[in-house]
Amino acid sequence: MGDSSVSSIIRQAPGRAIRPGALSSNGKLRKRLELFFLLTPALVFFVGFVLAPMVVGAYYSAFKWEGFGPVSDFIGIRNYVRALSDSVFQLGVVHNLIYAVLSLIIQLPLSVGLALLLNRNMRGQGFLRLVAFAPYVLSEAITAVAWLLMLQPGGFVDQGMKAVGLGSLIQLWLANTHIVLYTLFAVITWKYIGFGIILFLAGLQGIPIELREAAVLDGANGWQVTRSITVPLLGPTIRIWAFLAIVGSLQLFDLVWIMTLGGPANASTTMVTYLIDRGFQRYEFGYGSAVAVILFIICFTFALLYQRFVLRRDTEGATTRMVGQ
Amino acid sequence: MSKQASNTNALDRTGTWTPIYYFVALLVVAVTVVPLLYVAIGGFRTTAQINNAPAGLPHPWVTVNYHAIIFSVTFWQDLMNSAVIAVIATTLTVAFGAMAAFALSRYTFRGREAIYAVFTIGLLFPASVAALPLYLVLRSIGLLETPIGVAFPETAFALPITIVILRPFMRAVSGEVEDAAVVDGATRLGFFWKILLPLSMPALTTVAILAFVTSWNAYLLPLIVFTNSVHFTLPLGVATFQTQYSQDTARILAFTAVSMIPALGFFVFAERRIVGGLSGSVKG
User: Fold this and answer.
1) How far is A306 from chain B (nearest CA, A)?
2) Is A198's CB within 8 Å of B5's CB?
3) Is there a contact between B175 and A292 if contact means CB atoms under 8 Å apart?
4) B43 and B132 share a domain?
5) How far is CA B202 from CA A143, A257, B272, B277, B282, in A?
6) Which residue is closest to A61 within chain B, CA to CA?
7) What's the distance, CA A113 to chain centroid?
């Protein structure tokens, strides 16, 4: 996490306060009390609201339970078997994977390309960054409501397309089961592309100009410099962005729920909309807990593998360091 | 900016990219701004106007929609609820995160790395996945329909990134600074409070903004915790309003536009911090 450069200075720092003989048993007690005071609030919150729910969920996942009354109908792994063989859940997994792949093959080149184009010292640069980033700070809920209205049949989007001569391409954006997934992806791209652009612009600023100038002096043209120097050096930023994009794709909920509720006919359902639907709309708490555990395992496995094999060379990522030590 | 100038112009001396740059820049601005403008301007029309010409301009301009929203109890209630929850979550996140990061960065004790590792697990753990079990926990301890029922879990889920950002920052403060403070008679906690926290201000601002924006925009957690609309937050309120008034497009547009103002205003006000903080936290 970037602390390797300063680690030599700080290595001894934590130990400094404890000099040989300076700590009486009184001092040790005091240190323990301080640590208790400093760590307890964070640990209580984290254990209580992050770890405990997962343990509770794992427990309920072994029961058939509607959320009220005694938890007594033990059914072992039947909830898991049911989830994994449920075609709607499988559809949700596929949709999440489609979102992840689409973000890598569409959003990534788009945001890197825009960042490369915009990375020059022109008038209005600051304003441009401000504007491009604005959708990112809006909540997904507000974004969803705005686009829901604009995408109504005959609505703003359709009228706009007609005005620029694309009227023949108009679809039932949210009602056509073959289109809806991609409509939602377009809205997601609208909201999150600015974040990618800002991230890559920051990454580009970190590439020493000397490298590119040297390549130009050696006769490389602009495209060659971009392809052979700039983009490879942007690698760490790209890998972090991809991690965030994939994790984001796996837990997509707000936007889909408000715009389509996962419909029509499950055409836009995701893993989390499936979870919320089964858990809260149908009160299948035992089953929903099993789905939550499966989702957790999917996200956790992906994140660990990604940190271990893709991010390892860029950053001393927190988890890799933890496993490596 | 000066660094940027040298970074880019060397490869652009001919200026051939300039028209393309301006074209792309204009396109980005248009694609971003036009939907926002549509929402804001649509609020000045009547639903009949919108149904007749969805992409038209107000004719005449009407303020009745905005007037109804600004003087409605719902909007201000939602706004207050969002603010209360975001302030609680942000305060607790920064306080508890800074305390834990201090312990994990400047104390030596057995199990330190293990505790840090436990927190980093939270980085891999999306809140939405935990929603259902979390609901059951909140119900069993009686926190449903309360602001802290949302603010406490938000704090818990914001702690990992907060600690991961703050720990290296606090580590990097030289041990000599601490020694000097001890020589001057400060206790370790005194050093934390009077010296380390002020020195960590940039990082603290970053994590505070992250926590605030995350809480402000949250939808799923308020959705499962609140059923009584008196407690709704702004994102939940907008989504609910949309289903309640689904026939009155103009009024929904007005409500949506007004709801965008706090986030966009906060963003314009703190743009450098937000952009720097988010890209900084991501780059580690």
Assistant:
1) 11
2) no
3) no
4) no
5) 30, 36, 12, 9, 15
6) B133
7) 21
Which residues lie across from A63 on neighbouring strands? A74
**Predicted ipTM of the assembly:** 0.86
Q: Does the beta-carbon distance from A254 to B220 stay under 8 Å?
A: yes
B270 by DSSP, 3-state: which?
A: coil
* Residue B43 belongs to domain spanning: 17-62
pLDDT tens for chain B, 284 residues: list them.
344 444 444 455 455 667 888 888 888 899 999 999 999 999 999 988 988 887 788 888 999 999 999 999 999 999 999 999 999 999 999 999 999 999 999 999 999 999 998 888 887 777 888 889 999 999 999 999 999 999 999 999 999 989 988 998 898 888 888 888 888 888 889 999 999 999 988 889 888 988 998 999 999 999 999 999 999 999 999 999 999 988 899 999 999 999 999 988 888 887 777 666 666 555 44
Q: What residues in A contact B234, CB-CB < 8 Å? A: 139, 142
- B121 with B45, same domain: the answer is no
Find the closest chain B residue to A30 by CA distance.
B188
**Residue in chain A lying closest to B28 (CA):** A132
**Topology of the domain covering A82-324:** MetI-like fold (1.10.3720)
Residue B223 lies in a domain: yes
A50's CB contacts (< 8 A; 6+ apart) are B122, B125, B130, B153, B156, B157
The minimum CA-CA distance between A152 and chain B, rounded to whole Å, is 10
Smallest Cα distance from B24 to chain A, Å: 8
A159, HSE (Cβ side, Cα atoms, 13 Å): 15
